[in-house]
Design a protein that fits this description.
Elements lengths: L5 H13 L6 H8 L3 H14 L4 E4 L5 E4 L12 H17 L4 H11 L22 H17 L1 E11 L2 E4 L3 E11 L2 E8 L4 E6 L3 E10 L8 H4 L11 E9 L2 H6 L8 E6 L2 E9 L1 H10 L4 E5 L1 H19 L1
Antiparallel strand pairs: 1-2, 3-4, 3-5, 3-8, 5-6, 6-7, 9-11, 9-12, 10-11
Helix pairs in contact: 1-5, 2-3, 4-5, 9-10
Length: 320
């Protein structure tokens, strides 16, 4: 049974009243799943705190109404502060779930004057990227404006081929949102050149400009759907992979959901058989290398050969 904290319920009351006029007590109690008398206690606490004030109307047609005049007295924050708070909120939601309800209430109190939110998704925050933070923040704020206003962008990013930096073609992108992976922001958007969703690391976007042309969002996605077969953030061709994994990695692999359709079968006390669809050759090979000598690639032959080639290159570089 999911337990909702009092702080979370108070935040829900405020948000519910913001969207409505006069709300009967029974309606609020049904919305929150609590006894009507409990609602009266919450309203009293909100009014005593003083940040918001809820007018109470008695009688058969009574109820509660959020006093809108009080909202003008709330704390004002600028756009950069607001975006930073949103990132913190998503990080806490992902990694510190036990304190998320209280932080969400605090977030609502601080940011109640900001009605519009551009899409923001958060996957995992870990190591810090080595780039100029102020320039990256400016880039991100400009992209968020394009996302919010559904304006197309023209961008030019770079990639390395055989250790030589190459500029990719200019692309017209419909920017859908920004996701975070290992502290780095990535732009998710529909690419007109490839006619598909693509992910671009912001630090690799050399140039971009916001166009006057608008777009209609034609692809709905969630982080899970976007990366359902990915070991990391990079996408590519899908492979049906079968592995034999030995102790201690048999336990490590068994404890996590690596891909949407994975299947794990216990062979004996020290071995498992892993099968599943994985996306992106480089990500797969890197994952296999992380398991050192404790993994055997059974299928497909292509990945098995690429894995062997990578091991041979490492050996030749360091031991020949």
């Amino acid at each position: 049974m999911k337990i909702i904290s009092k702080a979370s319920r108070v935040g829900k009351i405020i948000e519910y009243l913001k969207q409505r006029d006069l709300v009967p007590r029974n309606e609020l109690s049904q919305y929150l799943g609590v006894h009507p008398k409990t609602i009266s206690g919450y309203i009293s606490e909100i009014n005593e705190e003083g940040l918001y004030y809820i007018d109470v109307y008695t009688g058969p047609h009574g109820g509660y109404r959020l006093n809108k005049r009080n909202l003008s007295k709330q704390l004002l924050i600028d756009r950069e502060e607001y975006e930073s708070l949103r990132v913190c909120r998503e990080m806490i939601k992902t990694r510190f779930k036990e304190i998320y309800p209280e932080f969400e209430t605090l977030f609502l109190k601080i940011t109640q004057n900001h009605q519009e939110e551009s899409p923001l998704n958060f996957i995992l925050k870990a190591h810090q990227d080595n780039h100029e933070p102020k320039e990256e923040r400016k880039k991100q704020i400009k992209l968020n404006d394009a996302i919010r206003n559904q304006k197309k962008i023209e961008l030019e990013s770079y990639k390395r081929i055989n250790n030589v930096q190459k500029h990719s073609e200019k692309r017209i992108i419909h920017p859908y949102g920004i996701i975070y992976y290992k502290s780095a922001p990535y732009l998710v958007g529909y690419c007109e050149l490839r006619n598909a969703l693509r992910i671009f690391k912001l630090t690799r976007i050399q140039k971009f400009r916001v166009l006057e042309a608008f777009f209609e969002k034609s692809h709905d996605y969630t982080n899970d759907e976007l990366l359902e077969y990915c070991i990391g953030i990079h996408r590519g061709k899908n492979y049906e992979v079968k592995l034999k994994v030995a102790f201690p990695f048999d336990e490590i692999i068994s404890e996590k959901q690596w891909t949407k359709d994975q299947s794990i079968k216990r062979i004996d006390d020290n071995h498992i058989e892993f099968t599943g669809t994985l996306e992106g050759e480089e990500e797969i090979i890197g994952w296999l290398l992380s398991m050192k000598e404790f993994v055997d690639v059974l299928e497909p032959e292509y990945i098995k050969n690429k894995y062997r080639e990578k091991i041979e290159k490492i050996y030749q570089k360091h031991f020949n």
